[in-house]
Amino acid sequence: MAFADQKLDKLTLVEGALALNVAIDPTMSLHWVSTELEHLAQETDHLLAGETNAEFRLDGLLRLFYKEWKFKGDFEQDFSSDNVFIEKVLRRRKGIPVSLGTLFLYLAHRLDLPLQPVGYPTQMILKVNGLDKEARYINPFDGEYLSQRILRGWLVGKEGPNAEVKIEYLKASNNATLIGRWLAVVKSALLREENYSMALRCSELALTFNPDDPYEIRDRGYILQQLKCDWIAAEDYEYFIAQCPDDPSAELLKLQVKALMAETPIFH
């Protein structure tokens, strides 16, 4: 089934992530990933499922995932595509919050732990509901609990000194929202690596959900230009200019269109 036809609200987050990954990189070994996930889940069940205290199960899973299995955030290559494809994260035991958090959430649900993903403005975090305490939040990057001071500090770094943590920022997010953000991260990583063929797949996937998004069409135009599909790129740029004439990039793109249309078309 094509990724665009997947009912993301019917899938678990890890299933949606795998569907996204395969749609971008069809060479991914889905069989190996499924086998590895089941292996981790069985080990989790063996070690922790018999613990009747949910708080202890959660502490045990945090210790198992981050200490014994040594999953961790990739501090050195935060923007690498290695950190956004589930297969590579499983093999390297390194990732970013969304990929690590998705794996941790998969295992937590196997243990009936009340965790939910939250699309916080700066990154994905995990919300722990209940367990006879107020809601708490885990940073999937390192498995540490997040204080309100840290959450606000992240926002200040993103939005400025007057930023405040709003209630809606800490609400659980649906899978479609998280997968959409994940797709944007994958595309950004691939563009940094100049992997324009896969980046084009990302852009096309995004446009299946919002076909008229002028900014995504502009981005697709840029990717097509790098792939030497100049006339098609010019059409995307012209669409963006018509839809967003007051955008600061519109004037520059007009010059790009003029130059591209003057080139001899290259057919692929």
TrEMBL record:
Family to which the UniProt record says this protein belongs: Belongs to the UPF0162 family.
The Protein SirB1 N-terminal domain, residue ranges: 32-183
Q: Identify the Gene3D superfamilies for this entry.
A: Tetratricopeptide repeat domain
Species source reads Candidatus Enterovibrio altilux
What is the residue range of the signal peptide feature?
Answer: none
Name of the protein described by the UniProt record: Protein SirB1
Q: Short name of one Pfam family for this protein? A: TPR_9
**Organism superkingdom:** Bacteria
Recorded hits in InterPro entries, A to Z, give: SirB1_N, TPR-like_helical_dom_sf
* Lineage, highest ranks first: Bacteria, Pseudomonadati, Pseudomonadota, Gammaproteobacteria, Vibrionales
